[in-house]
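User: Is it possible to get a 3D structure for a protein together with its bound compound? The compound here is flavin-adenine dinucleotide. I've pasted both below.
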Amino acid sequence: MESINKRAIVIGGSLAGLFSGTLLRSIGWQVDIYERSTHDLDSRGGGIVLQADVVTALKKAGIATENLGVDALERYYLQKNGQIEKMAMRQTLTSWNILYRSMRRHFSDAHYHQGKVLAQVQSKGTKVTATFVDGSCETADLLIGADGPTSTVRQQLLPTYEPQYAGYVAYRGLVDEADLEPEAAKIFTERFVFYDFPNSHILAYVIPGENESLVPGKRRFNWVWYVNYDEKTELAHILTDKNGKPRKYSVPPEMMSPTVEEAMRHYADGVLAVPFKKLIAATKAPFVQSILDLTVPQMAFDNVALIGDAAFIPRPHTAAGTSKAAANAISLVQALVHHNHDVTNALQAWESNQLSYGMKLWNHGRSVGDRSQFSYGKNRIAG
Ligand SMILES: Cc1cc2nc3c(=O)[nH]c(=O)nc-3n(C[C@H](O)[C@H](O)[C@H](O)COP(=O)(O)OP(=O)(O)OC[C@H]3O[C@@H](n4cnc5c(N)ncnc54)[C@H](O)[C@@H]3O)c2cc1C
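Assistant: Yes, that's possible. Here is the predicted structure of the complex:
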């Protein structure tokens, strides 16, 4: 694709940033991505339901989409009495790592800048300038705020909009196929498995291995367990890491405090169905994320766009956070092409559908989450 002499700055080098970066490049823009982390992000892990918009975004960016995931053929709903309700439903499950690495490999190192923390954004006429904490500045025709839940771009443009704790956290974990005993492993293989109980649910499915392997025996089980904690009296304890450092929204693998991890394992033994107890027992490094709610009234600001989790955070029950980021980026480049790369006109045309899509997903996620977690009040049942 021939360059069209337009430049974009993308703040945030995670999935939303990489969807934007790779897609903008595919329509001839020069793009630089600025990521605050000083190292590659691929330790973040976790499973992702592979939705159509993700595949479309990758294809449009010229990235191979074969071998991205593992197919689950049906859903299993485990029952307290040991029985299983079955439902045919095919889904492809992938991992955060595969999506990140697929796009990262496709985006040149020379234009992916690590250790760059955005401090401020300033629009002037048709140009926008990003100033970084290290004092350096970059100017472009378009700036994309793909900087996630704590977005600096959003804090500056919509200072009163911040993520709100939804009332529960997700404990999460990954287990190598070889590390789970065969009887439990059989239940989780080629299936999306749920166990619902009052004010909580847990789910699991197989995702590619750490090294992107799709070979049976070399893949991983991914589980997510939603548990209610009171924001005022309990949450801070859950989010304090093993070094006593309070974390804002999540504690990564190998950093959970032993007390919190121990209590989680004990609680699992008290309330979960047997296959899930075994899955958690086999998990070496669980991690925890608080579930957040965020909506915004605006995503386009002259020549600045907010996308992905920087704009809307739908609850994970929608399995659509990543595909929303992909959809935001796909429609942004379509609008740019349609408006002959006139940024202001393109962003204006782009915004309204994205706002209603974000709001629709957020409403759906909230209703599913509230029904699962709060049907019997706000507490969790005793273990
Ligand atoms: C429990 C759970 C399960 C999920 N499951 C799914 C699923 O099955 N399917 C799905 O589609 N989605 C799922 N999601 C959501 C999904 O992970 C995100 O929606 C998606 O990855 C998009 O994230 P993002 O790139 O917008 O933000 P992030 O991944 O948060 O990235 C933001 C990036 O910006 C960087 N940054 C922040 N501030 C600055 C700054 N000032 N300067 C420079 N860089 C900065 C950060 O370091 C980070 O790398 C799940 C989420 C949770 C919590």
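The longest strand covers residues 164-176. The mean pLDDT is 96.
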